[in-house]
């Protein structure tokens, strides 16, 4: 058997021997990616036709061999050995032997360490519950360490990077003022306008002021601020620390003797705690302003009557309670953002995943906390 090709994919295969006996073949020319599969197919055909007792492949005539060609030869040898057929590769050049030594055929043929198993509904629910418990444990552990670091700052305030705190206060607070003001104003307009349709049926449009005032001071002011800060600053914290994890900057800080929690997370959390109450008051003001605009321009309520009704509906306890909630939301948002950033392992894709997870998780926890606060506030009346 003799096979010779011409052109850029040329290779030579010369076979000597009889069927069922020892067979030797000489392989030459170019064995590379463009013809490796064809070479392997010719050898499989040779084994099927001649059924040799032993096969010796002389590689002395090979002019060019790349990793794909070497993989084809080693695959041939492996397949023959599984059929109890000894195949020997001889006279390989040093360059060819070096390329063949780079290939770990056992690792290539090994099954994946983790095989995807299709789970039924009960198993999926159980797996989800286990993941939820694990995430809750990690989150609680992180917040325990964070609160410990924050408590330490009360006794050693000079260790806090106050310049960084001021920088984060500007990024978290001042830069959020335009979008927060617009969002709360529009929300106040919508709440007042929609509630007026129902109250007009009873001739009680003046109570639009009560509804907007109580809604924004007790709930919407702190909640809308928390949602906005979660999307703006919580995601930014996760992306910043996550990028530092990818670049191994967090490990470098630890090697230099800095505590990553105190160096990176504490300034962000402190800055968010300081600006959240101010932003909440700002949100309340624009929300009430939106209700006032609807009341005066559409419902024919005088400015004095609207303001006076709002003042009678509100109390300082509601105001202070909302500010307290905003501080709690600040710790939740900044803490979850930092925690997700510290969890990043891998590349840029993991940074994006951590950022998305930080926003979703913080929004969920803030809404759950808001529900709990509302229930507690109603029972404390």
UniProtKB/TrEMBL annotation:
The chain crosses the membrane at residues 176-199, 269-299, 319-338, 359-380. Residues 26-105 form the STAS domain. Keywords: Membrane, Transmembrane, Transmembrane helix. GO terms for cellular component: ATP-binding cassette (ABC) transporter complex. The keyword Flavoprotein does not apply. GO terms for molecular function: phospholipid transporter activity. Signal peptide: none annotated. SUPFAM superfamilies: SpoIIaa-like. PANTHER family: ABC TRANSPORTER PERMEASE (PTHR30188:SF3), ABC TRANSPORTER PERMEASE PROTEIN-RELATED (PTHR30188). Belongs to the MlaE permease family. This is MlaE family lipid ABC transporter permease subunit. It comes from Desulfobacca acetoxidans.
